[in-house]
Amino acid sequence: MLFQTLYAVFAISKNNGKSTPFGFGAQTTGGGSAPEQTPSSLEELASWLKDDRPRTIIIDRMFDFTDTQGNKTENGCAPWTECPDKNKGEVQHARNVNDWCEPHIKAGKSISVTFRVAATEPLEIGNDKTIKGVGTKGVIKGKGLCVSNKKNIIIQNIHITDCNAHLVWGGDAIQIRGGENIWVDHCTFSYIGRMMFAMGSGKNIGITLSNNHFQGKTRWSTNCSNRHYWSILVLGPEETVTMANNCLDHTSGRSPKLGGSDKDKVTVHYYNNIHIQCQGQGIDAGKGSKMLAEGNLFKQSHPVNPSDVLTEGGGESYFPFTEAELAACQSVFGRACVANQVLNSGKCQNKKDYQFGKKSNVPGEFKSFDSVIKADVRPTSDLIQSGPPGGCGIGHI
């Protein structure tokens, strides 16, 4: 039986992953040869992350910021219908950030919302940093990380969790708002209010997300499905991103969401990722985005609403499945593309599948990228047998 447990997907050999950055983020060195340092307090961790000295910061325990800045109550909204049985799950409410709630407030859906302030004010990361967890001990609770116009950063083997999961705009796990040469590797994200990974507000060049576990199973959702909607968002005027060997688990949207406006120019090589038990909106290649997707596995993942079916929303993507589609890469890269695969079973069996993008011009848009030409893309049979090379999430390095 394929994937008898989720553990079989995520907890596999440590010896098959890459110990160095690759893809668009291959030039990242982080703290380089800076000696390893272990912070002794929340304040010291925040200070070391923010300064501009090269550092290798070791996280060997839980750093809990949850209640460090108190609670706040303000006017928000209830955009979605309440769940019929709150013992089984609850619907997310939302903060009125950037007037996001205004249409819902005008519709009579204004409510009071209370949240922990710490999760809405992320830890800032300076240039030339490596932040790395030890085993499964490296946890940052109640606060996310933010990169703003910085470069050369490695975030590895960290679990970021519990950021106001009951509220949209309750906090992001990782934000990149202008960055260059950044590698996010073997991290786990869970119980996040908004985005597990968000990128935009400036050029983000040379970014790799690898072997991360986007754990979407939650009590709070937008549709009472116990699945997190706000997974991965990539916007911006000049974005080059590799997403490889990641596991998206029980998500219901933005998995990932790319671009969306005429101002966006998003280029993503997306390969050997596993989507498991994801229901609803999956991949959304919006306006201004180009996506080459190879060797990805979609298991027990399907649309729920008619609007979920299309994986393109004005952008261009190429998801090869057939031999003819694979051959489209040969003349461009000197190698064939690697086929994607959809595996449905159980209650998913009679659902309509996603309609994946088939823009055959897309491989040509990637022909100048050496990291794409030489990418080590595995066949999906390898993923079925043992999951992504290197495993997903913390505890595999």
UniProtKB/TrEMBL annotation:
GO cellular component: extracellular region
Family annotation (InterPro entries): Pec_lyase, Pectin_lyas_fold, Pectin_lyase_fold/virulence, PEL
Top-level class of the enzyme under EC nomenclature: lyase
Source taxon at top rank: Eukaryota
Chief location category: secreted
Keyword Iron on entry: no
Compartment(s) where it occurs, according to its Swiss-Prot or TrEMBL record: Secreted
Single GO biological process annotation from the record: polysaccharide catabolic process
UniProt EC number: 4.2.2.10
Pfam families with a match to the protein in the record: Pectate_lyase_4
Assigned protein family: Belongs to the polysaccharide lyase 1 family.
Function: Pectinolytic enzymes consist of four classes of enzymes: pectin lyase, polygalacturonase, pectin methylesterase and rhamnogalacturonase. Among pectinolytic enzymes, pectin lyase is the most important in depolymerization of pectin, since it cleaves internal glycosidic bonds of highly methylated pectins.
Name of the molecule in the record: pectin lyase
